[in-house]
């Protein structure tokens, strides 16, 4: 086999309920993930040693050493099977880097599935999900796709039914935000307060299951949004510009700084994207639909 390419979706957190900091430094979550049709592609080929290249938007900011999540995935899988991780990994990037849309996690999940296929290991989905959880809290969902509730630190997934397509616009911000820094700011903003245990919202799950965009828009919530806005106050203007452009609802995607806008139709999404582009409050926009399938061998 000469090479294997896997396509992996970005995510938006339609509910991100965050509990207090745990002794291990993570936070318990009720994390409702939705995969969206914005994809990275990860290609692996046999090589003399483990190497990585990356092309596409933000590629210059992606590490090309063993800290890359795709490299870590190849190393982990090879180690588990006692084989040499000698592959060249090429990442074609469309998911904003350090944007809160799980781009690195997507590449980790993609490399895992691509190497498993290239090496003919035949791992089950459950075995791959277990390795994904070692790589990072968001990585299992990048493999699974669709929609799911993530509990624990977000890695324990329960698939969720989705009753129809949803239309989104994503506004890419200038520069990234560090996920640990945003959780740290959440802790600072809640210092001394009792943070309730995170719970999935019933109205949100009902809206998702019914495919009801207006009800979903009313139920979107991200507990990390105040922290992301505190670190990047200019995001408020982007959120306002998308709402003024006709979005049903707007929120920061995960730890940000990408902002997400729910629209009532594909036409409305194009209008929201146009308004955001004209506003000068973001670097670029992407229109996408959900749910999107998880990591897929092409
Ligand atoms: C913000 C989200 O993207 C929402 O889906 C995720 O919670 C972040 O997931 P991720 O990037 O895969 O995060 P990981 O690589 O597992 O952890 C990076 C850092 O984020 C913080 N972190 C992450 C997940 C979590 N449940 N609690 C945390 O406090 C911790 O400081 C951790 O050291
Ligand atoms: N394959 C990869 N693609 C992008 N960044 C990577 C990758 N591997 C490691 N990184 C590192 O991870 C950091 C976070 O990048 P990533 O694009 O995953 O952020 P994110 O989308 O905000 O993540 P999440 O939504 O899961 O919190 C980057 O700044 C980069 O240093």
From TrEMBL:
Q: Which domain of life is it from?
A: Bacteria
Q: Where is the active site?
A: 11, 138
**Ranges for the GHMP kinase C-terminal domain?**
205-279
Question: What is its EC class?
Answer: transferase
Q: Where does ATP bind?
A: 96-106
Where's the GHMP kinase N-terminal domain?
68-146
Pathway field: Isoprenoid biosynthesis; isopentenyl diphosphate biosynthesis via DXP pathway; isopentenyl diphosphate from 1-deoxy-D-xylulose 5-phosphate: step 3/6
Q: Quickly give the catalysed reaction.
A: 4-CDP-2-C-methyl-D-erythritol + ATP = 4-CDP-2-C-methyl-D-erythritol 2-phosphate + ADP + H(+)
Q: Which UniProt keywords apply?
A: ATP-binding, Isoprene biosynthesis, Kinase, Nucleotide-binding, Transferase
Q: What is its EC number?
A: 2.7.1.148
InterPro entries in the cross-refs: GHMP_kinase_C_dom (IPR013750), GHMP_kinase_C_sf (IPR036554), GHMP_kinase_N_dom (IPR006204), IspE (IPR004424), Ribosomal_Su5_D2-typ_SF (IPR020568), Ribsml_uS5_D2-typ_fold_subgr (IPR014721)
A single GO molecular-function term is:
kinase activity
**Which residue stretches, if any, does this entry annotate as coiled coil?**
none
**Function summary:** Catalyzes the phosphorylation of the position 2 hydroxy group of 4-diphosphocytidyl-2C-methyl-D-erythritol.
**PANTHER family referenced in this protein's UniProt entry, alphabetically:** 4-DIPHOSPHOCYTIDYL-2-C-METHYL-D-ERYTHRITOL KINASE, CHLOROPLASTIC
Q: Please state which protein family the record places this protein in.
A: Belongs to the GHMP kinase family. IspE subfamily.
HAMAP family to which the protein is assigned, alphabetical = IspE
The protein's name is 4-diphosphocytidyl-2-C-methyl-D-erythritol kinase
User: Mind giving the lineage of the organism this protein is from?
Assistant: Bacteria, Bacillati, Actinomycetota, Actinomycetes, Kitasatosporales
Q: Which gene encodes it?
A: ispE
């Amino acid at each position: 086999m000469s090479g294997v390419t896997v396509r992996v979706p970005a995510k938006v957190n339609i509910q991100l309920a965050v509990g207090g900091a745990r002794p291990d430094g993570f936070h318990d979550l009720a994390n409702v993930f939705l995969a969206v049709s914005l994809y990275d592609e990860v290609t692996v080929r046999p090589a003399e040693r483990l190497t990585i290249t990356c092309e596409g938007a933000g590629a210059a900011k992606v590490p090309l050493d063993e800290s890359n999540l795709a490299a870590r995935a190849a190393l982990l899988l090879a180690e588990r099977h006692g084989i040499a991780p000698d592959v060249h990994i090429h990442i074609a990037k469309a998911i904003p880097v350090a944007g809160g849309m799980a781009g690195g996690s997507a590449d980790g999940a993609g490399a895992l599935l691509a190497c498993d296929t290239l090496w003919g290991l035949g791992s089950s989905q459950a075995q791959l999900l277990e390795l994904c959880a070692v790589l990072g809290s968001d990585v299992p969902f990048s493999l699974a796709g669709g929609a799911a509730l993530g509990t624990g630190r977000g890695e324990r997934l329960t698939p969720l039914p989705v009753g129809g397509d949803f239309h989104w616009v994503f506004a890419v911000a200038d520069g990234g935000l560090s996920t640990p820094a945003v959780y740290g700011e959440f802790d600072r903003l809640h210092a001394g307060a009792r943070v309730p245990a995170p719970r999935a919202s019933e109205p949100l799950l009902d809206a998702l299951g019914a495919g009801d965009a207006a009800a979903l828009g009313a139920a979107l919530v991200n507990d990390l949004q105040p922290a992301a806005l505190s670190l990047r106050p200019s995001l408020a203007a982007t959120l306002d510009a998308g709402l003024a452009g006709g979005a049903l609802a707007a929120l920061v995607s995960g730890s940000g700084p990408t902002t997400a806008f729910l629209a009532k139709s594909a036409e409305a999404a194009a209008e929201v994207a146009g308004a955001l582009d004209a506003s000068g409050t973001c670097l670029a926009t992407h229109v996408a639909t959900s749910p999107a399938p998880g990591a897929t061998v092409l």
